[in-house]
Amino acid sequence: MIEKINLNNILFLDIETVPEEENFNSLDAEMQSLWDLKTQYQRKDEVSPEEFYERAGIWAEFGKIICISVGFFTIKGDVRNFRVTSFFGEEKKILKDFSNLVNNHYNQPQHLLCGHNSKEFDIPFIARRMIINQMPIPDKLNLFGKKPWEIPHLDTLELWKFGDYKHYTSLKLLTKILGVPSPKGDIDGSQVAHVYYVEKDIDRIITYCEKDTIAVAQIFLRLRREDLLIDDEIIHV
């Protein structure tokens, strides 16, 4: 029962990713060929590998992480706060800082990670990029050999599925139907690469990522039938 989980033990998270190179022509010939093969099914015949490359951030083999936002509750008595912070910059530093946070503060059996579709996207993407960057994976992310009930992750999409594994609901739709303030600002996921590579405006991306992290926490509160966070309870650090 999620109502019994101590909110102080959950680390909420969201990541933003982009293609590892700014454009298809920046890839060497072998990577271009591998991208062609990897995306053949998704592209069909009418879209070229070069045209499809703007979506490369979806795959850890061809993308990279540019921001990880995390949020956590601090509840003392009747005072509730939700603190949000972000890791950004060079990818290896992002991953190292996130790993240090998890290893030092969320490494106990009662600790849980929570995102929206994070079991399918965020967590595997982070783990794969750590391997690619030759970094150790924190125990909380290393799921090899673990049984389903031993995996220390919560996923608001999975909670909303109620066992209906063919069902997908976006974060934006779920916030709308649950009466959660919209997490989206002036950009959406399809624009992140342009904002990063062309506009070079990482602050916009950080704001976008943090809003998603807050939205995940709000959905989790809704699922527990608890009051939503108000602006005064949200602290950016």
Task: Describe the protein.
This protein is globular. The protein has helices at 29-38, 40-43, 49-52, 91-105, 122-132, 156-161, 171-177, 192-197, 202-223, and strands at 10-19, 63-76, 79-88, 112-115, 153-155, 234-236. The chain contains 9 helices and 6 strands. The chain has 2 domains: 7-20 and 62-227, Ribonuclease H-like superfamily/Ribonuclease H (Nucleotidyltransferase, domain 5); 21-61, no CATH class. By secondary structure, the protein is an alpha/beta fold. Strand 2 (63-76) and strand 3 (79-88) form a beta hairpin. Helices cover 36% and strands 19% of the residues. The two termini are 31 Å apart. The chain has a 6-stranded mixed sheet.
Descriptors:
237 residues; alpha/beta; Nucleotidyltransferase, domain 5; 2 domains; six-stranded mixed sheet; globular
CATH topology of the largest domain: Nucleotidyltransferase, domain 5
CATH superfamily descriptor of the largest domain: Ribonuclease H-like superfamily/Ribonuclease H
Kindly provide the name of the CATH class of the largest domain.
Alpha Beta
The low-confidence runs, each spanning 5 or more residues with pLDDT under 50, are none
Number of helices: 9
Tell me the structural class.
alpha/beta
Secondary-structure arrangement, i.e. CATH architecture of the largest domain: 2-Layer Sandwich
Q: β content, as a range?
A: 15-25%
Shape: globular
Task: Please indicate the count of domains.
Answer: 2
Mean pLDDT: 94
* Spatial extent as radius of gyration: 18 Å
Calculate the terminal CA-CA distance, rounded to whole Å.
31 Å
InterPro entries: 3'-5'_exonuclease_PolB-like, RNaseH-like_sf, RNaseH_sf
GO molecular function: nucleic acid binding
Domain Predicted 3'-5' exonuclease PolB-like: 62-224
